[in-house]
Amino acid sequence: MEHTRSSKLVLAIILFTMLTGLVQCARFVKAADTTPRFYPSPQSPTVTSTLNFTMDIRIKNIYRMTLYQVYIDFDPTLLNLTRVTKGTFLSNNSQYATSDYVDINNNSGTLMYSESQNSPGNYTTGVGGNGTLFTITFNVKGTGQCNIHLHDTLVLYVTSNLANVAEDGYFNNQQITYPDGGVNYNITITSNSTAHDLGFNLTTKNLTLNVTGPTGTAGYVNITVPKSLLDVDPAQPPGVWAVILDGVPTTSFIVSANATHTFIYLPYTHSDHKIVVEGNKVIPELPLSPYLLLLLFAAVSMLHMLAKKRKHQLTQTVD
């Protein structure tokens, strides 16, 4: 009986502690942000072998809206805006008629876009919720990185200007980021070609990319690889870096290195090429974190205590 009372007391203490912790945590829970927000999706687009990518400009947390306006800046040396397609959000899937205005300047790298309902002053047509406002299509002209900057955004509900915020997008076909164990390993591409379809495979110990440029012109790519991510161990076959150009191994590349990185330089003649760079040594398995070690130690200690307690009970029973 005494054992049962003790167990109930321990359980009550545990439940009280958990509830107290939940109450304390609740005090720090931040209220959800309901400010209308413009944002691109995907925020960091991937370039496919077509050398084009699309990006939706979306809005969320909007209560009522009859007109909006967005300005977008991008790097005109890297990107060319080829198309803007009106979405169906403001028209409520064509329930209301809308008109849009498009002003593209690829020389300066700017876009001004606006859309409004054709029945101003009608309080019943304001659209709310989350959705896609319009879609933009870019052609990639080179290798690099840039922000896709949304600014001077405007939201109207009839004649009322609604406060709002905007998030930027980001384009990068110059760098592969491989996250592992809380560490980001960056492979950087420098080239006079347009790089696309960048990839890294930990299992096959290689990285891949496609390059494109004007047919017949001289091209090059320089790949910077952190040794902590991918390297070559001379004791393991083949013992050297391997570069495969369009499915055929090549020796027309130069390898140099410092203490932390390897630099692989490959020249070629344009037009389109697929490049594979292979090492034979990838990042080692990360050691157990101190927290995991502590957890394992606690678990082993608990099992040991339970085993001793069990042995003691058996001894008492036998006695």
List the helices and strands and how they pair.
Blueprint: H1 2-27, E1 37-41, E2 52-62, E3 67-73, E4 79-86, E5 98-105, E6 110-117, E7 129-140, E8 145-157, E9 160-161, E10 165-166, E11 169-172, E12 175-180, E13 183-191, E14 194-201, E15 206-212, E16 218-226, E17 230-231, E18 242-245, E19 248-250, E20 254-257, E21 261-269, E22 272-278, E23 281-282, H2 290-318
Parallel strand pairs: 1-10
Antiparallel strand pairs: 1-2, 2-7, 3-6, 3-8, 4-7, 5-6, 8-9, 8-11, 12-13, 13-16, 14-15, 15-22, 16-21, 17-23, 18-19, 18-22, 20-21
Description:
The protein is of the alpha+beta class and 319 residues long. It folds into 3 domains: 37-172, Immunoglobulin-like (Sandwich), CATH 2.60.40.680; 175-282, Immunoglobulin-like (Sandwich), CATH 2.60.40; 287-319. It is built from 2 helices and 23 strands. The strands form 5 sheets. Strands 3, 5, 6, 8, 9 and 11 form a 6-stranded antiparallel β-sheet that branches. Strands 4-7-2-1-10 form a 5-stranded mixed β-sheet, with no helix packed on it. A hairpin with a 3-residue loop joins strand 20 (254-257) and strand 21. The longest helix has 29 residues, at 290-318. The radius of gyration is 30 Å and the shape is elongated. The relative contact order is 0.12.
